[in-house]
Amino acid sequence: MTGRDTHEAAFGTLGWFGRLVRTTAFKLALVNLVSYSALTLFLIAYISNNTATLLDRQLEATIGSEINSLAEQYRRGGLRQLVSSVELRSRRPSASLYLVADYSGNTIVGNVADLPLAVLNLPDGQPTQVTYQRLDGDVSREFRAVVRVFAMPGGFRLLVGRDIAERQEFEAVVAEAFQVALVVMVVLAFLTWFLIGRTVLKRVESVAETARRIMSGDLGQRLDVTGSGDEFDNLAVSLNRMLERIEALMNGLKEVSDNIAHDLKTPLTRLRNRMETTLREARDDADWRDAVASSIGEADELIHTFDALLRIARVEAGSSGDSFDDLDVREVLADVGELYEPVVEDAGGRLVQAGDGPLPIRGNRALIAQALTNLLDNAIKYGLPEEPGEGSPPVRLEGRVADGEVRVTVADAGPGIPEADRERVLQRFVRLEASRTRPGSGLGLSLVAAVARIHGGRIELGDAAPGLAVTLVLPRRPEAERTGGDGDHGGRDD
Amino acid sequence: MSRAAMRVLLIEDDREAASYLVKALDEAGHTVDHAADGEAGTHFAETGGYDVLVVDRMLPKRDGLAIVEDLRRRHDHTPVLILSALGQVDDRVKGLRAGGDDYLTKPYAFSELLARIEALARRNRPGDVDTVYRVGELTLDRLSHVVTRGGAEIVLQPREFRLLEYMMRHAGQVVTRTMLLENVWDYHFDPQTNVIDVHVSRLRSKIDKGFDKPLLHTIRGAGYMIRDGA
């Protein structure tokens, strides 16, 4: 049997109590119990020891002063006065012991019945603890006292002592206090362990139970948050956030596969049908060539769509692997603007760049650039007239900082998107023309939205009056505040 | 077209893709050896004598990147084109760090692959250290940034200069739109609008307009080429 088995066997039968013993709460309670007992023991020992010393000193002081005063009596009136004085004091009820003995140890006067003879031969002035019997009390009972002996000429000796029953009582009280404290501590430790253990256990069990339900496929499950704001709540909130992210990713994945199934199967079927028709009906070389050329075109289109889908999925999963750097979107804007300026012009429009100053963000240059090219592609495709007419409609590319956010807007002067459709176009494959005659996969804005999301930003569709204004809103890099204000002077970041 | 015949080593496990490439490269006038897995590929590559290696990333027995790393460790600088279905920026970076010279994502057009390996083979030749490129009467000075044709200076924008420089470095070779986008603009994605065409046609109007003989040619279905002669 291994140690674990023994453990199981020992606690297995105890059920929840067994599990309680294995909890961290139990170990904590045990450690607490041991350390507090040690502390209490130390405190009590320290206090009682010090108190005892103090009492001893008081005792000795009392004895000392009595001896001094009796010695004074002896000096003044000799043995007679001492004896009468002792006799007087012995009669008073007190904790004091008196004895005057002759050279052979016989009692002359005093209130001590039986005392070891050796005591009387103690060196002068040395306080000693002795056991004695009282004359006035129960003879069979033994008392303890601290005594001091004073030697007088002629072998006479004076003994003065003080009963230490009070001190013993004090010690007994201290010992009892310690015992009580120990019991209270053990009880409290058990109680803490039991209560904490049970709460912890309950919460942990609820987490485990939720995890089991999630694993069995119910991704919508969330951990309970009690609202107490304790560590368990914090943990639950964090885990719930993680679960939300996972659920969103799973949904995204499912959506991608649905989209692939739905939107890629159609062109694939078309491609296949065309090839089949060609196989059946092609008469000459030219027919074959045409069919193959158009099939290649279709395949390229498919690849393009597929790539776009995968890219969106990867961006949304945040696992594109593309690293985030400190960058100035202004430079990306300049680059993309340079690339697109002649394209816009050739399409019959003109590219207008607006805004100045740095646009510091933490992000991925390639993703931002791609998002912007997608927006510019859209502006060219949908924002410029198909037949160039009078004037050249503007395509605005603007970047500015507002409310701690970097706002990059691509606006065209085209027909725009009706308010009602603006939310819809961000979804994958949604295109506003049902006929789908214009080029495009309907994935451009989805990718822009995904890029915005992964940067912690968003995408806003607005009215450029006339035309569509798409704004990529990204959080401004906070530490850039120090290097430049709201960006009217240099401060280029690379 | 003035193409020097190359010896190409193709390491690719997909039989159909491989036979297609072997055939197409052969038709383009190049000699091709084919290895179907990583171990055979390493063995072939070690014998040397190739102008270009085309290496698939995911191979049985031995990973494509490991082959390239091995090659570089032995100080073999044969140009390598990595082929892969993994096309994200980090995949590219990994491929290029391993010692690849170029990275092409599957699926690809053969014209793209051919253009890229021809450009790679050229890179390995000593002629590349020239500071002045010449194609017919067109010259480009890489140091002074002066472009002339027939003795007259042609003023180019910085990006136009880089575009022309890249094309002249690969004079006589097909340069695809993707290659231009990657090498001149450093963008690794495919814009829907054909932005490159617009830039090339602007460049063309600057260097060819008013001259009898066009130097910048469009190669249908593949890309562009700068060359002297029809």
Automatic annotation (TrEMBL), chain A:
| Chief place of localization | membrane
Query: Where is it located?
Result: Membrane
Q: What is its EC number?
A: 2.7.13.3
Reaction(s) the record says it catalyses = ATP + protein L-histidine = ADP + protein N-phospho-L-histidine
Transmembrane stretches, by residue range? 28-47, 177-196
Q: Which residues form the HAMP domain?
A: 198-251
Q: Is Transmembrane among this UniProt entry's keywords?
A: yes
- Matches recorded under Gene3D superfamilies: 1.10.287.130, 6.10.340.10, Histidine kinase-like ATPase, C-terminal domain
Q: Which GO terms describe its molecular function?
A: phosphorelay sensor kinase activity
Q: Check the record and name the InterPro entries matching this protein.
A: HAMP_dom (IPR003660), HATPase_C_sf (IPR036890), HATPase_dom (IPR003594), His_kinase_dom (IPR005467), HisK_dim/P_dom (IPR003661), HisK_dim/P_sf (IPR036097), Sig_transdc_His_kin-like_C (IPR004358), TCS_sensor_his_kinase (IPR050428)
What is the top EC class of this enzyme, as a single word?
A: transferase
- GO cellular-component terms in the record? plasma membrane
Q: Name all Histidine kinase domain ranges.
A: 259-478
Q: Which domain of life is it from?
A: Bacteria
Keywords of this protein's UniProt record, alphabetized? Kinase, Membrane, Phosphoprotein, Transferase, Transmembrane, Transmembrane helix, Two-component regulatory system
The name of this protein is histidine kinase
Annotated organism of origin? Oharaeibacter diazotrophicus
From TrEMBL, chain B:
User: Which residue ranges carry the DNA-binding annotation?
Assistant: 130-228
Q: Which GO terms describe its cellular component?
A: cytosol; protein-DNA complex
Molecular function via GO: phosphorelay response regulator activity; transcription cis-regulatory region binding
Highest taxon listed in the record's lineage: Bacteria
Supply the SMART domains for this chain.
REC, Trans_reg_C
Indicate where the modification 4-aspartylphosphate is found in the sequence.
Answer: 56
Is Magnesium one of the keywords UniProt gives this record? no
Q: Which UniProt keywords apply?
A: DNA-binding, Phosphoprotein, Transcription, Transcription regulation, Two-component regulatory system
What Gene3D superfamilies would the database entry show? 3.40.50.2300, 6.10.250.690, Winged helix-like DNA-binding domain superfamily/Winged helix DNA-binding domain (1.10.10.10)
Question: Where in this chain does the record put each Response regulatory domain?
Answer: 7-121
User: Which Pfam families does the record match to this protein?
Assistant: Response_reg, Trans_reg_C
Biological process (GO) annotations held by this record are: regulation of DNA-templated transcription
Domain OmpR/PhoB-type: where? 130-228
* Name of this protein: Winged helix family two component transcriptional regulator
Q: Name the source organism.
A: Oharaeibacter diazotrophicus
